[in-house]
Amino acid sequence: MLKYVIKRLLLAVLTLFIILSLCFIFIKMLPLPVVNGSTEMVELIEARREAMGYYKPILEQFFLFWGRIFTSFDWGYGEQIYQMQSVTDIIAGKLPATIAVNLYSLILSIPIGLLLGIYAAVKKNKWQDHTISTLVMVFVSVPSFVYAFLIQYLLCYRLGWFPLLASTDTNYLAPEVVWSLMPAIFSLAFGSIAGFTRYTRAELSEVLTSEYMLLARAKGLTRRQATIRHALRNAMVVIFPMILGEFISILSGSLIIESIFSIPGIGSLYVTSITSLDYNFFMAISAFYTAVGLAAGIVIDLSYGLIDPRIRMGVK
C-alpha cells in the first residue's frame, strides 16, 4: 500500500508539473497586457516584471518561475486586479467563501440524494423509480447555471424569499449570511443530489438482486433488515468514496455560480483573472484547481482499500 501511495503521489506531482508548464508556456507566448492604473502603480508593476524576468527568453523565465515556486512559493503579485497584492494572500482570503457555499450544498445534497437513491432501488421498475430516474436525468443534463438563473428569477425576484446576491459579510456561520447563500446552495445541490441518487440507485439495485441477499431473506430477515444490514453496507463501498471525493472537491468551488451570485470566492476570482488578463492569478488558481482534482482522485482510490480490505488483499 505504501508503494502504491508513493507512486500515486509522484504521478500526481508529475501531472501537476506538466499542466502548469504547458499553461506557463502558452501564456508567455501571448503579449504582456498593458497595465492600467496610476503612474506610480504602473511603474511599480513594471519594476516587478523586470525583477521577475518577464522580458527574458521564455526558457530562462521558465526556470525562474519554478525556482520561485520551489524556494519561496512565490506566485507573484496582482497586476490587473488587486494590484501589487500577494496572489497567495488574496486566494487564501477568498477560500472561506468557496468552502462555505460548497460545504452547505453537500450537507444538503448527500442525505437527500442517498434517500432518493435507496427509495428508487427498493421500488425498482415501479412508478416511483421511473419518476425519480426521469428527474435525475433532467437534473444531471441541465447545467447548474441554468438552475441559478431560474432560482434567481423565481425565488429571489418573483417571490422575494432570498436576496438576489450573496451577503458581503464574511461570517459564514451567521444565519442571515447562510440565508443569502441559499440560492447558490440550491443551484449547486441539484446536480449533486441527482448524482448521488443515480449512483446509490444503481449500486443498491445490483446488490439487492445478489444471491447472498436471497440467502439473508431465506434465513428469516425481513426485506428492511436485509437491506440495512447487508445491502447498504456493500453498496457503500462504491458510494462512500464518491462522497469523500465530493468533500475534497469543495475547495474547487464553482466558477459560474459564484460569479452569478457575487460570492467572493476563488471561482469568481478565476473568471475575473481570465477576463482581466491577470496571468499571475490565473497560474496560481489553475495550480490550485489541478492539485485539488488530483488529490480527490488519490483519496478516492485509497478509500476503496480502506473501506473494503478485500481490495487490498486482491492487490497483494
Tell me the layout of helices and strands.
Elements: H1 2-28, H2 39-51, H3 58-72, H4 87-122, H5 127-141, H6 144-158, H7 175-208, H8 211-218, H9 223-248, H10 255-260, H11 266-276, H12 279-307, H13 309-315
CATH homologous superfamily classification of the largest domain:
MetI-like
Mean pLDDT over the residues:
83
The class by helix and strand makeup works out as mainly alpha
Number of domains: 2
Main sheet specs: none
Strand content: under 5%
Proportion of residues in helical segments: over 70%
Q: Low-confidence spans: pLDDT under 50, at least 5 residues?
A: none
Going by CATH, the architecture of the largest domain would be: Orthogonal Bundle
Distance between the termini: 9 Å
Helix count equals 13
Query: For this structure, what is the CATH class of the largest domain?
Result: Mainly Alpha
- Along the chain, the helix and strand elements come as HHHHHHHHHHHHH
Using only C-alpha atoms, the radius of gyration works out to 24 Å
According to CATH, what is the topology of the largest domain? Answer: MetI-like fold
The total of beta strands comes to 0
What shape does the CA trace take? globular
